[in-house]
Amino acid sequence: MSLSISQINSFHRNGYLVARQILRTEDLDPLISDFSRLIDEIAEQLYQEGAIQSLFEKEPFERRIASITAATGKSIQSQVSFPVNLRRPLFNFLHSDRLLDIIESLVGPEIYSNPTHHVRPKLPESVGMDDWVQQSPVHQDAAVLMPEADDTLVITSWVPLVDATETNGTLCIYPRLHTGPVRRHVKCPYGWTISEDEKPAGEPVIVPAQKGDVILIHGRTPHGSVPNWSDHVRWSLDLRWHDARKPGGRPLPGMLVRSTDQPITCYEDWIQAWQDAQADPTPRKMYRWI
Ligand SMILES: O=C(O)CCC(=O)C(=O)O
Fold first, then answer.
1. Which of 113, 121, 225, 229 could crosslink 136 through cysteines, CB 3.0-4.6 Å?
2. What domain range includes position 168?
3. Mind listing the pLDDT tens digit for each residue in 145-199?
4. Domain total of the chain
5. For position 105, which CATH number holds?
6. SS in 3 state form for the chain?
7. Residues lining ligand 1, CB < 6 A?
């Protein structure tokens, strides 16, 4: 279903929108089952290497990756995210009609899946990991794209795979600050954050979302996420989209996922494009700030 006019207006007024109960079990479950299979494979490998003494196979999806990480003492989060994970269920999820219908309401019918995607199993703070998945200091997503995309409306869809709350590390967003220029960002241990002198004043809004909801965020809306003080993993995906005819600002392979007149990118071509990109030694400038 498309967004209503009032939802579209609300998105453009506030710089974000929580679209309630867009995704159904049949959209999310194949993805969650595949993440579980992938974690099985990672656990098996670590067990074979002697890095863990248990497979933690009785642990539920919401805890298992935390227990494995705690046992190894090393982050394994990037192994479930792009571009290490380019498995077919993830590819299929990027084509979910219910997701693309709401994206189309904002960017139009030619939809490009921008390669700045992440899968984030945000672990409980008690595990003691401290990396880019755990910490998301305040930033604008447009700032991690090259300036050629400054006139492109790049939308983030934030998709929780468990209910996301103030306790387990949901997003915090500064509303109505998406109309100005891209703010200056500086490197920090977790990626990029708005420089002190350009940080938004005041406090952000904490935005809980249930499994099935999608938080849509304008590329210039300052946001981050709060710590995960719960005992379980806050699984989510952040996926980015824009009009396929406009520049996307990230020189890596994305794909055409919906079009009225062009063939969309097939799975084999997407995989090949990533393999080619990874094999290509030509230096590529990814960030405007360095
Ligand atoms: O999921 C998170 O914790 C942060 C996500 C985020 O900041 C983003 O999608 O840009």
1. 225
2. 5-24+79-279
3. 999 999 999 999 999 999 999 999 999 999 999 999 999 999 999 999 999 999 9
4. 1
5. 2.60.120.620
6. CCCCHHHHHHHHHHCEEEECCCCCHHHHHHHHHHHHHHHHHHHHHHHHCCCCCCCCCCCCHHHHHHHHHHHHCCCCHHHHCCCCCCCHHHHHHCCCHHHHHHHHHHHCCCEEEEEEEEEEEECCHHHCCCCCCCCEEEECHHHHCCHHHCCCCCEEEEEECCCECCCCCCEEECCCCCCCCCCCEEEECCEEEECHHHCCCCCCEEECECECEEEEEECCCCEEECCCCCCCCEEEEEEEEEECCCCCCCCCCCEEEECCCCCCCCHHHHHHHHHHHHHCCCCCCCCCCC
7. 120, 122, 136, 141, 156, 158, 223-225, 236, 238
